[in-house]
Amino acid sequence: MSGTEKKAGMSDQTAETGILCVHCGDPCSDDGLRDGDKYFCCAGCRAVYNLLSESNLGGYYSIDDKPGLKPERPGREQRFDYLDRKNIIDKLLDFNDGKKAKISFSLPQIHCSSCIWLLENLYKLNESILTSRVDFQKRRASITFDIQKLSLKNLVVLLASIGYEPEINFSQTAEKTKDDSLRKLYARLAVAGFAFGNVMLLSFPEYLGFKAASITYGSIFNIIKTFLSIPVVLYSATEFFKPAWNGLRQKQINMDVPVSIGIIILFFRSLYDIIVLNHAGYFDSLCALVFLLLIGRLYQKKTYFSLSFNRDYRSYLPISVFVKKENNLENIPLNELQNGNRMIIRNQEIIPADSILISDRGKIDYSFVTGESTPITVKSGDRIYAGGRQVGLSLELEVVKEPSQSYLMQLWEQIPDSNNEKTGVTTIANRLSIYFTPIILAIAILTGLFWLIADSTYAMNAVTAVLIVACPCALALASPFTLGTAQRIMGRSKFFLKDNHVVEKISQLTSIVFDKTGTITQSGASQPIFVGAKLTPEQKSMIHSVVLQSTHPLSILIAELLRDSEIRNVRNFEEREGMGLEADIDGYHVKIGSHFWVNAKNEDKINQTAVFVSIDNEIIGYFRIANLFRKGLTEMIPFLKSKYSVSLLSGDNDYEKDRLSGVFGSDAKLHFNQSPHNKLDYMKKEIASGEKVAMIGDGLNDAGALKAATVGITLAENDSSFSPACDGILMASAFKRLPKFFRLATDSMNIIKISFVISFLYNLIGLFFAVQGLLSPVIAAILMPASSVTVVIFTTLATSFAAKTRGVF
Amino acid sequence: MEVMVLLIFFSLLIAIGFLIAFIISLKRGQYDDLYTPSVRMLFDDRDKGKDADKTGES
Predict the structure, then answer these.
(1) What is the ipTM, given to two decimal places?
(2) Nearest chain B residue to A139, by CA
């Protein structure tokens, strides 16, 4: 982008939306911080801007417009002190020879090309950084640095100071194994594809009608084909042998069992044909089969690298904590925290362990744990549970239970972890193969018996042919391609699934449970609702006229609500900070504000912000500031109720019951005051009664229920939102499409069933030749890939079509 | 026709060479990140970047 273009674009934006911070793009005030013609919203942004400009990193701002992240306030570097401990350094570094060290950080803040550019040019900021490489999709950066000159702690401080504070955890090894399995699959696919192409080429003379033995070099061709096929069976096909074997050991027949039988029989039958009979063999079919099946496997393994579906509660807790030791503050990692330690928790930090308050008083926001958003006041000696967020001044706490013993952790441990895996095994394809495999074996035995009586020379030929042709490759491809396509389409529409089995689980749902705060309500957006006798037009116009005089956010909200009413002349207007407004209108004295301001008794235990109105010292009611429901909620509930039983679990109390009944219907199951424990128990009970439940929630207070549910769906405001362990992440912008996603999942299962029928038809044709002992290599080479390709094309097209008609896009 | 066998043999040898090259590059992680390099190649070089800072930005 050239300089002039950018300038022009910027001035346009200024005209429309006010002045935006050059660094982060947030609006900032006219008289605020400025440097020449550049405005900043805060000192932090200016500091980063100046730092980058001085280090010749101004290019950061020319790649994407206003890419910056608000840095944390300086002066809190102490919290990284634990990174100076040797055992921690060793754990985190990928490589360290005393001079050079390499580390890979997870930086969820990475969001644009400018981020890549800046992070890859870190060496300009500090010359001890040797190289840095960003992996955009995984939101990771690996940095090599000179550990003699720059400590790990200072490196993290440097990153945090420019707005990229790494998310440090100790379970990074899990990521690597994911990489490895994908690489292995690619390698297997490459070997199979290579062999498939070459064997097919060498088999070409047969397809044209030449008999293998009559071709001059037929036997040489056969030898090459055999050698090419050996790695396919021994290496590529292990992808199917292993799960088949594991299934058999657990006395389960999964889809890989008949597939493996088919591959093995195909291989030995071909060996026999080539060596003993000097025929052509079925190596071409074998390689094609393995190749196609591996493509199916690859399609199945779609993962969203930038999202994490497996976070446990630990990632909510800080990884280090300040501990008071003989009047010194020491920063220690969480796992070294012991009973009796005195820890210091600062504003907005999360309390990592159950403890007792030593300081006089404090305010704790338990919204993570209970969903209740109002902070609780605690006094010295009170017990405080892990997961609470400290609001206000720093607190001193004495640990009474180690982090691993806390209430939160125990809640987590109670959840049957196997729940998800168990349902994963009984997919539709696997259920089918329980019947399929014995039937095929029976047909093979009957064919064998028949030929033994009729003409025993054909027996072996016919039996193996039946087993080969019955190899359910089209069947095995049907669900990965249908579910994979559905998963991709949903991903494009901002509903990200952990893996494609989740599509199948969604199709089986019978019940849907919503969380309230943050899930069906929009965080940040609110709407005033008047509580009291119905307002007369005259009262409305008086309130409207008064609130119009004020720029307080609540006044603006109320003014917006009453925007249609008349505006009158206001005299003697006065606004008192933190209290309210008063004014005279046509001889009436109007007061609007907190309950102190109008002398109201706050007896209704109003749990949220309320704006009282009094006219001539008579209180006529109050405005309750309620969160707005998400767009599409009211429209989707009737549809969902027609198919599923819908209920609501809220951590809040029931002050909004009437409003919620209006949306969910009077017969809906609404549960209030639900602790995370209650939510988990509710979910367990539902599942035990045979329901398939989807839990739609957001915070840590839903984490237990999300994990226990058949399908746990987390709602996220943006890509980098922190979500608890779940099966799917739904972006807030796609919330209204939820019923469409559910319908698409059901459609996908029907498509799978249709494609099962198609592949059975192919199998029947094959069996028709096979039982007669007439299955020639050419027929096999046409029939088997043809059936697979038909199924792949059908499922992909049908799923896309279904998505289009359902309006998922 | 002996030349056919020879041709097939050599063409296979070349193909296997490429297969091995592919697998080596795979093991070294060249296919792990398929997105970032596409952005990275569009960035200006180090020196050019310095000039741009002076003229374009301030």
Answers:
(1) 0.81
(2) B36
